[in-house]
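Support reply, case 0932

Customer input (verbatim):
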Amino acid sequence: MQKINHYIDGINFEGNSGKTSDVYNPATGEVSAKVCLANSNETKKAIDVAAKAFQGWASTPPLQRARILFKFKELIEKYADDLTMIIVQEHGKVYEDAKGSLTRGLEVVEFACGIPHLLKGEFTENVGRDVDSWSVRQPLGVCAGITPFNFPAMVPMWMFPIAIACGNTFILKPSEKVPSCSMMLADLLTKAGLPKGVLNVVNGGKEVVDTLIESKSVNAISFVGSTPVAKYIYENSAKHEKRVQALGGAKNHCVVMPDADLNQAINGLMGAAYGSAGERCMAQSVAVAVGGVADKLVEGLKKKVEELKIGPGTDKNIEMGPLITKEHLKKVKDYVEVGKKEGAKLIVDGSEIKLQGYEKGFFMGGCLFDHVKTNMKIYNEEIFGPVLSIVRVKDFEEAIKIINNHEYGNGVSIFTRDGDAARSFSSRIKVGMVGINIPIPVPMAFHSFGGWKRSLFGDHHMHGMEGIRFYTKLKTITSRWPTGIKDNNNFTMPTMK
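Our regenerated output:
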């Protein structure tokens, strides 16, 4: 059976903890590999390696760093199919969705290739008489990234390309459920010319995380995952005086106005709610039906949910693959049962689907609830599965109110033909990312990704200029030079001029 190790100091490193975890193929339910889990000592080795590599890498001109990233981009494009298949096999995404997520990560690499321009500071001549002032952005040192299972390529590439472009060294701790993609990306970066020790991959669990948090040599931590863990990382990183960005959970709403293009809204909701089996922090898991649009919306969704093509991600005709683990499958099914007990109307129940030839796979069909109330558990909590809830509201103002009252504020969308409604919505809504007739409003790499409220702990969003600011320290220099040899000797008493 394949054994997945760590990647430290430019080489495959097994370690000696003796601990491993099973890596599954979610479509078959079979164990596909064993991943080594690092202990504290092995994590400290990676930190020491990264700290040692920092000085040389920080002094490398940004243009040279950019050239390595350009080469890395070429290698990702060359091995895109291999990386995509790794995502399909370990996460379960359908092929095109997996490829799309890789592309969104690649776009951050492309953005980071512009680092010579992005790191340019500001200069002011004569802030005082013969005094100049300028600012520069300098790297932090060793940075760490802790990433979730649902995007094995994209989320790591939200972090390390910008971090290393800025002159930092980096330790990546991917989800132990999907370790292979990160290992391949690290290897490709080495092939692109990245010096040893600049990027390291350490597989493991809480022991690794706590070691990174407690280490005085680690200066910043980036995290994407659930809100309880995000809060834990934020609070404990702050105690150890680290810079931190911790992206948490979500309960994204999609408002459908009475004047909306209903077909556009339904098609958008299908992809946003059931794409990647709902295992996205930007999944639209609540449709807010305004006024009299609800019945037609439910009717249109019901038909499409029932017709969802479900199967292994290797089949390019499939629309939705399996969930990540048997345990997570059970958790999502339990939410469906809770929803029924709470009084929501289950319009489509896909929880007991069985696929011939894939009986042991972690498959579930799409579920659609109607008449969901804001006091229900299925409304308030992040399910992270293919479950869409319809909430009926009487008007636009009620839609605004329930969204703003929710503890999460990651992403939101509105479908409408009314520019006034759209403008008012985007201005008043307390959510970090807003889509207008766009179901999944994920910003491009040169903008920044992040939510509000309990969807983000920390001050900086990811990638774009926010990413540059997070991975650098601002230094401002004010300078005056004494009179030099260009002036003749002056023997008179100096006075204020």
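We compared this against your earlier run and they match. Two observations from our side: Residues 2-248+455-478 form a domain with the Aldehyde Dehydrogenase; Chain A, domain 1 fold (CATH 3.40.605.10). The mean pLDDT is 95. Please reopen the case if you see a mismatch on your end.
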